[in-house]
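Researcher: Here's a chain I'd like modeled. Treat it as a single chain, no partners, no ligands.
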Amino acid sequence: MKRVGEGCGVMKPLLISTFAAAVICSSTLGQELKPGDVIWEFQTGGAVKSSPAIGVDGTVYIGSYDKKVYALDGKTGAKKWEFETGHYVYTSLAIGADGTVYVGSRDNKVYALAGKTGDKLWEFETGDLMMSSPAIGADGTVYVGSKDNKVYALAGKTGDKLWEFETGDRVYSSPAIGADGTVYVGSHDNKVYALDGKTGAKQWEFETGDTVQSSPAIGVDGTVYVGSRDNKVYALAGKTGDKLWEFETGYLLLASPSIGSDGTVYIGSYDHKVYALNGKTGAKQWEFETGDYVQSSPAIGVDGTVYVGSRDNKVYALDGKTGAKKWAFETGNRVASSPAIGSDGTVYVGSFDNKVYALESSSSGPADSPWPMFGQNAQRTGRAPSPVADKIKINAVSKTASPFTISFESKSGSTYLIEASHDLKKWGEIGEVQGTGSSVKFTDPRLPIVPFKRNYFRVKLVE
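Model: Modeled as a single isolated chain. Structure tokens:
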């Protein structure tokens, strides 16, 4: 079905945040699919527990029990390349600002791969298998945990070890990095740690009642949210580790929390349920029961829809306000993979049926929130955005049918994506601009533009 956007409104100067995008209106046509429909699927040689990561060019990166890392075209699912490690790849990948892909394997190693080709740039061997997903600091440092009980900080360019911190047991939790560079991570010694990102020095520790495999999520005020196998979700003060509240579910928690645009905390439990909790108080807002364990971490769309997988073989889309089921997609086996939401709203997820799926959604992208999915963003960097959002100042906009142009103030060394849509739902990248420290100009390269049809544009800063 073809649709045309309805209207533009009055153009005004725009301020656009780092994890939100305002919209500029002009012209085009597009096609809409039904939410929950399969756009494509890709068959690997083993179960897919790994959670997808999405590059700024739309490439989808994911690991499999077949020991491989795959790079897939986000639009078609076509394989771009594959890289074989020495054992299963359980973890999610993380993508650096330069496109480097970082991933851990059960062969005890962390790999850095060239995002375009899959060529190995370096490897670093820990003392045991890797269940922790990497996180990437603002300076490119890679943080990751290992079953050898340690958290490592590695130089992103070379893989050189910068520091290590030893906990009292194995580390399956994936690190999360605060806006000030503090690294938060859980351990099977029942503790959550806050570490100095530069030195690895312990800033505080908080003890739960059981092991902590969940990865923390960080709120806009620095609050750290994390689950534990003691069945509880904890909210901790980021600066001190003081407990702000706890919420008890019916069984253990391995999933990681996500945070909605209004501060609601979403998390799945082994009691088969997904919970929505008030981020300030921990009060339960709703619960939704699936047919089995929930180990998948939710992803939240810009329209508030919550996407999450379950061991009952399904991926669910839930209303973020009420918990009502919008739709469910059934795979051929359990879903422990945490969904990722692309800039155009496509939902990507893996399944133990050996497949990676791209699903149509009702969302036009991830939520404008401090932690809308596992790893904070589609690149899975695991890093909180600046508490004072960087702004993009739009200087001038030309709304002529052809060509559309826009100029805006930029930061030196930053990358800006220009995206277009016909209906404010499906977005596609049409260009990339490198910041200069001053005003930059972008012209829509697509010619000819269909006259008299609506087209919407947005500018996004890639952190």
